[in-house]
Structure formats: C-alpha cells, structure tokens
Design a protein that fits this description.
Blueprint lengths: L2 E7 L16 E2 L2 E2 H10 L4 E8 L17 E5 L4 H9 L7 E4 L9 H12 L4 E6 L4 E4 L5 E5 L5 E10 H13 L7 H8 L4 E4 L12 H12 L2
Parallel strand pairs: 1-4, 1-6, 4-5, 7-11
Antiparallel strand pairs: 2-3, 6-10, 7-10, 8-9
Bound molecules: cytidine-5'-triphosphate (CTP) and magnesium ion.
Length: 225
C-alpha cells in the first residue's frame, strides 16, 4: 500500500483578512503551511505530498519544504474541492490518500497514525470531535427555533483518508451533480460509502479567524518543547 498526502493550500484566507493568505503567516518564525506539510514529510510511510497552490502564489517557493524531494505542487481551483481534484490527478488510483488542510498546523503524529492504521485495513475515515456546546437552530431572525440533539453531532476535521481512485471518482460525480462538497467525506456520504469518524484532538484547529493565531502559537510551542 502506497500512502500519499494532498494539501489544499490554494485559498485566500478571506476571514483572516491578513496581508498574505493565512497558510503563509508565520508561527514562531515558520509558516503555518510548513507545519501542516512537515508532519507528513516526517512520516516514512507517506511517499508523496501534493500541494495545491493559488495561481498567483509567490510565497511557496520561499519555503524550505518546496525543495523537498517528496513534495510536488499543482495549481488549485476556485473551490476547495477543485484544488483537491487537481492534486489527486497527480496520484495513481491504487494510492491511499490523506487530504489535510494547509491551515491545520497542530495535527499530532498520534492522530495521523490512527488514520494510517485504519487505511491499512482499507477503511475510509476522518478525524472528528464531538461537539461540546449545546447546539441551537436559528433562522434569519436570530431567534432560536429549537435545540439540536448534540449527542449525534461531530466537528469534521482533517486528515480525511480514502482510496485515491474512489475519492477522485466520487468527488467528480458530486461536483457534476452540483452537490455542495465542503469536505471529502460529504461527497462519500452522498455517494453512499461508509466513512468512519475517528476521535481526534480538539486542538487540531483550522486557523480561520485572527483570534485563532495566538491559540495555534501556544499549541505549537507546547508540542515542540
Ligand atoms: N483551499 C484551497 N482551494 C480553495 C479554497 C480553499 O486549496 N479554492 C484550502 C485552503 O487553503 C485551506 C483549506 O482549503 O488550507 C480550508 O479552507 P479554508 O479554511 O476555508 O481557507 P480559505 O478558503 O483560504 O479561507 P476563507 O474561507 O476564510 O477565505
Ligand atoms: Mg474557504
């Protein structure tokens, strides 16, 4: 079994609203993208890391990871799913692929290994966490309509792990059917394939808003100490 990683890094970070896309913001002197990618480069069973970049990207080539022999790049697309599809085109159908957001620099090797173990058994899986707050359903009025039973609710995270040929076909079919694909699993669910939720760490956060930066900084400093 050959394992590969796909890192969608072609977003512009609208919600972060920084001078560069958020994946290039430094945390303790190193770009967020470098943390997200190095975890896979350090994993001997991962043969290749394909990174999808924005067509106007002029930051990636300045990173040390850009010179790594396991790293290749592609031009991403307008939506995250387009970027993932562009990267999957570089891999063979028989590969097993782990898709991981460029903006999740706090993933731990322990959580990554949970997915690799399931992949060896041929199981599609994603990292996820049970929601912890009481969940409210509200309409445009801003008034609560009802409380959602949270016992069945999970936060979907990455990596998300699938056979490459299957994932490519299912993502293409979902896009053609106008399904709103927000993560790989959503397309798999739509196509009727089983996907396992693997309990991961709450601190595998996606850096999204400015207030996430000091959190990521704290978590990374603690991990590398
Ligand atoms: N992504 C991508 N191609 C896109 C859109 C997003 O490769 N067309 C990537 C982002 O770079 C990020 C991941 O998908 O690593 C998750 O997306 P998100 O957190 O939404 O990042 P952005 O789209 O950059 O942020 P925003 O939605 O705030 O603009
Ligand atoms: Mg986005």
């Amino acid at each position: 079994q050959r394992f590969s990683a796909v890192i969608p890094a072609a977003g512009i970070g609208q919600r972060m609203a920084a001078d560069s896309p958020k994946q290039y913001l430094p945390i303790n002197g190193k770009a967020i993208l470098s943390y997200s990618v190095e975890l896979f480069l350090d994993e001997p069973s991962i043969a290749q890391v394909v990174i999808a970049l924005h067509p106007d990207d002029h930051w990636f080539n300045q990173l040390a990871i850009s010179k790594h022999p396991k790293v290749t790049t592609v031009i991403g697309g307008a939506e995250r799913v387009d970027s993932v599809l562009a990267a999957l085109a570089q891999l063979s159908d028989d590969d097993w692929v782990l898709v991981h957001d460029a903006a999740r620099p706090c993933l731990t090797p322990t959580d990554l290994h949970k997915l690799l173990t399931l992949a060896q058994k041929g199981e599609s899986a994603i990292l996820a966490c049970p929601v912890r707050d009481t969940m409210k359903w509200a309409g445009a009025t801003g008034l609560i309509e009802h409380t959602v039973d949270r016992r069945a609710l999970w936060h979907a995270m990455t990596p998300q792990s699938f056979n490459c040929g299957l994932l490519r076909q299912v993502l293409k079919d979902a896009v053609n059917a106008n399904v709103h694909v927000t993560d790989e699993a959503s397309a798999m669910e739509w196509a009727g394939f089983a996907v396992r939720l693997v309990r991961g760490r709450y601190d595998n956060l996606k850096v999204t808003h400015p207030e996430d930066l000091p959190l990521a900084e704290f978590l990374i400093a603690r991990q590398t100490r």
